[in-house]
Amino acid sequence: MGLSTHVLDTMNGCPAAGMAVELFSTDGNTATLVKSLVLNHDGRTDAPLFDNNTIKVGTYRLTFDVAAYFKARGVELPEPNFLGKVSLDFGVANPAQHYHVPLLVSPWSYSTYRGS
């Protein structure tokens, strides 16, 4: 089933189209960049981050460039920003299952959960 993500902009009530996202594999304090991408018009990736054949048991990090996204939308943010980049560390225990990591975000808060 693989790995996917979806970002919703809760300040404006819309998908976070154009937000930059990075996916890392992690091992302790070491993070290795797997891919960088920009979310589409629906706040999603155009393809799974990993498909069923490439996802492996392990730990990962998704990093979302929240400040750059809101600045590009014309939101006046304080310096320094309250949220710059949001990093979510998570584990994949069973690669036969689907791992969906959504982010609900504003310039001042975020939440996530394991979706379906």
From TrEMBL:
Query: InterPro entries per the record?
Result: Hydroxyisourate_hydrolase (IPR014306), Thyroxine_BS (IPR023418), Transthyretin/HIU_hydrolase (IPR000895), Transthyretin/HIU_hydrolase_d (IPR023416), Transthyretin/HIU_hydrolase_sf (IPR036817), Transthyretin_CS (IPR023419)
Documented EC number(s): 3.5.2.17
Name all Transthyretin/hydroxyisourate hydrolase domain ranges.
3-115
Q: Does the keyword Transmembrane apply?
A: no
One Gene Ontology BP term is: purine nucleobase metabolic process
Task: Specify the enzyme's EC class, one word.
Answer: hydrolase
Per UniProt, subunit arrangement is: Homotetramer.
**Family from the record:** Belongs to the transthyretin family. 5-hydroxyisourate hydrolase subfamily.
Protein name (Swiss-Prot/TrEMBL): 5-hydroxyisourate hydrolase
Q: Tell me, what's a Pfam family for it?
A: Transthyretin
What species was this sequence derived from? Comamonas suwonensis
Q: Which residues are noted in the entry as substrate-binding?
A: 6, 44, 113
